[in-house]
Amino acid sequence: AQKITQTQPGMFVQEKEAVTLDCTYDTSDQSYGLFWYKQPSSGEMIFLIYQGSYDEQNATEGRYSLNFQKARKSANLVISASQLGDSAMYFCAMREREDSNYQLIWGAGTKLIIKP
Amino acid sequence: DGGITQSPKYLFRKEGQNVTLSCEQNLNHDAMYWYRQDPGQGLRLIYYSQIVNDFQKGDIAEGYSVSREKKESFPLTVTSAQKNPTAFYLCASSNLHGQANQPQHFGDGTRLSIL
Hints:
The structure holds two protein chains of two kinds. By secondary structure, chain A is an all-beta fold. Chain A has strands spanning 4-5, 10-14, 19-21, 24-25, 32-39, 46-52, 60-61, 64-69, 74-79, 88-96, 105-106, 110-115. In chain A, the strands form three sheets. In chain A, strands 2, 5, 6, 10, 11 and 12 form a six-stranded mixed sheet that branches. In chain A, strands 3-9-8-7 form a four-stranded antiparallel sheet, with no helix packed on it. In chain A, strand 5 and strand 6 form a beta hairpin. In chain B, 36% of the residues are buried. Chain B is mainly beta. In chain B, strands 2, 4, 5, 6, 9, 10 and 11 form a seven-stranded mixed sheet that branches. A four-stranded antiparallel sheet of chain B has the order 1-3-8-7, with no helix packed on it. In chain B, 0% of the residues lie in helices and 49% in strands. The interface between A and B is medium-sized, with 24 and 27 residues.
C-alpha cells in the first residue's frame, strides 16, 4: 500500500493566487516527520519545509506553510501569492522514526504550473 | 560553499558497458543515498550508506553497485545487468544524528541515456 499519496498529478494556478498541494500519509508510528521538496525543470531537489508529528503548530517558511491535520493523516503544502518561479514538481516525503536508517518515503509528486 | 556535486551532468552508455556516476559531498554528512527518477515519477531508492565501508540495498538495487571508501564520496556504477538504465539519477546526503527535522540535501543529478 502507498505510504505517501499525492492525488493531484498536475495543477494550473493563476499567478498571485494561493495554491494547496495535497499529501496524505500512512504510518503506525507515533513519531514521524514530513518534508516537502520542490523540483524545478532543471532537476535539483530543493527542501522547502518540515513538519514533525509532535509539532503543535503548523510549520511556516516564508510563503510556504503546511496544513497539518494529524487525525486525517494529511500534510498539505500551501503556497501563498504564487509566482511564475513556483512552477515545478512538488514532492511530499515522510521519515518514520522507527526506521533507524532515516530513509525518506516519497510520493509521486504534483506538477504545478503557474499561469501569468 | 558546502554542497553535493554530481558528475557528469549527462552520460551516455553503450550496450554492455558499465558506467560510474560520481557523487561528492563536503557537508560532513554521515549518510549518503542514490535515487533513480523516471519521467513523471517520484524517487526510488537504489542504495544508501550510513558509514564508510558499509552500504545497504534500497528498493531497486539490481543492476547497480556502490562503494563508500571515503565519507565524502559515494559513486554509483550502473552495470550492464541493468537493462533499462535510462533515467535521472540523484545523489543525496544527510546527518544521521541530531534533530529529526534535518532534510536530505541533493545534488543536481545525472541524466543517463542509452546510445
